[in-house]
Amino acid sequence: MSSSSSAAAGARPVLRTFTSLLKLCAGRGDLATGRAVHAQLAARGLDTESLAATALANMYAKCRRPADARRVFDRMPVRDRVAWNALVAGYARNGMASVAMEMVGRMQEDGERPDSVTLVSVLPACGNARAIDACREVHAFALRAGVDELVNVSTAILDAYCKCGDVRAARAVFDWMPVKNSVSWNAMIDGYAENGDAKEALALFKRMVGEGVDVTDASVLAALQACGELGCLDEGRRVHELLVRIGLDSNVSVMNALITMYSKCKRTDLASQVFDELGNRTRVSWNAMILGCTQNECSEDAVRLFTRMQLENVKPDSFTLVSVIPALADISDPLQARWIHGYSIRLHLHQDVYVLTALIDMYAKCGRVNTARNLFNSARERHVITWNAMIHGYGSHGFGKVAVELFEEMKSIGIAPNETTFLSVLSACSHAGLVDEGRKYFTSMKEDYGLEPGMEHYGTVVDLLGRSGKLEEAWAFIQKMPVDPGISVYGAMLGACKLHKNVELAEESAQKIFELQPQEGVYHVLLANIYANASMWKDVARVRTAMEKKGLQKTPGWSIIQLKNEVHTFFSGSTNHQQAKEIYARLAKLIEEIKAVGYVPDIDSIHDVEDDVKAQLLNTHSEKLAIAFGLIRTAPGTTIQIKKNLRVCNDCHNATKLISLVTGREIIMRDIQRFHHFKDGKCSCGDYW
């Protein structure tokens, strides 16, 4: 035996040992040990040997060092298909789709024919890069090479198509597949879910279960996502029962998805039950439950959960803050707003663009629009959502011109507005009576930016025109809409008709609304009030009878004021507050004081009772009770802030202006539509709301 052949034979056990070590390093991402093994191989002159070099390239790729993998590959004197596949997979795994595709081309030039391993390696990179042409090219190659019938190849092809957004092509591949495994089904179901077709995702999942295919955590996750998007509670419960039967109730990711599904189906009670029974809660579990409460307007519960999370020593992340901050915005307590802002600074998360945007929105909704602007100005990074939050904040406070200026500044520095931006600026124009600007921006939305207006955009334009008294133009605008108008559009029209006392158009708008079968009684109440203002009592009775038959009720008005971490809620005429006697005494005195400076009760807004009773009913509206309580419980000069669930009525608006004058207090009122800043007898809305 020659010395060279004996040396080679002696090297083989060493090579096997080192390649096994490199495989372990690759699996663990242990770059330091991998480099040490590389050094040992180089010292023995074995680092360019095919087996060793391939293992080294694979190790470097899996340790996120594709450049090092390439250097090892380039030094190889002979490269086989396994080596090429290792490099292609390395580039693909590190998100370098175009280089991976280039290597497949080079591989063929080098005389090596790509196999199924090559294709399965490169396809995920094509999908992640949304390189649809590359996907089609690989698919065509698979067909020519006759490997498209292999289940792993066809699954990788359909998954890549899904990631590129071509679900129809993916489904064609799926339906053609002679053999499908659970991975194939999961890829197709997830593809539908991720591309917004929840209905088809759920239908395919049900078919998968019906055909007896093994259901895995991946398919259950996609099914739960689909149930949540569709609001299909019954289907969601069936998936819940299934996952318990197959033992997935111990999988925390699945249970987190279950919490999210129940929350999206507006059943926070069921979500909370799952959360409370979850033994191994993660931060994601807490985030899902907090977000569920926030999205279902259970703001107090969201804040309580956040507090409990801290007590259990679970460290919040940016997602936690983005979930709980909107709940604090809904509560509208400036003290809590300042606390969460300080807390985000302590966590070093205040400059995260999503946290910062949530803080800006929160301060605006707490009546502190100047603080919101200071935060906006301090931002290191401004995403389009950050601009949207600030524009919306100005609009909701009635500062339409400032909102428009900010919108123009945004465009001037090259930030493209999106649908939400236009909705915010249109709303700002509506609240400020900027009709010409609003018209211009609505036209610009499609002509300049290619954005298709949604139902909310149309509704806001109708509101803009209607508020300004251009009822005929608003009605003509509705008739020309390219889509069927929804309740929000006709609702805006009905509101404008009440404001400008147009019974004829009100009846037409209301008829269209009732055909769409609204679940709330607000539109019936609005029409009844329009009839009452026109003294059309028979029509008032007819509308009220229709409400009773449909089981619709008027939403009771309430106002809240928060003092020293206590929320005090007042309903019109309520006497159950522990300081009710003092409140009514202070209110009676207040009415006399404002009457002395010109207050006259707006008794036209109440019907069916005598004038003296009308005045008495007006004087016990919830916002007046909340303001009287605030005057009793706060020091002179303190700003009073209240929140109301309905639009503030004309009488309360006039009264609050005069209360701010006689008491020298600033009063901030957030109603369902906007903010009103009352000071020195004036309101920031300029009586245009």
User: Strand tally, please?
Assistant: 6
What structural class should be given to the helix and strand makeup? mainly alpha
pLDDT below 50 for ≥5 consecutive residues: which ranges?
Answer: 1-10, 609-614
With strands numbered from the N-terminus, the spatial order across the biggest sheet is 2-1-3-4-5-6
* CA distance, first residue to last residue: 100 Å
Overall helicity: 55-70%
- Rg, rounded, reads 33 Å
| Biggest sheet architecture | 6 strands, mixed
| General form | elongated
pLDDT averaged residue by residue: 89
Descriptive report:
The chain is mostly helical. Among the domains are: 471-550; 560-683, no CATH class. Helices cover 68% and strands 4% of the residues. The chain has 36 helices and six strands. A six-stranded mixed β-sheet has the order 2-1-3-4-5-6, with helices on one face. Strand 1 (558-563) and strand 2 form a beta hairpin. Helix 2 (31-43) runs antiparallel to helix 3 and helix 27 (455-467) runs antiparallel to helix 28 (471-479). The protein is elongated, with a radius of gyration of 33 Å. The N and C termini lie far apart (100 Å).
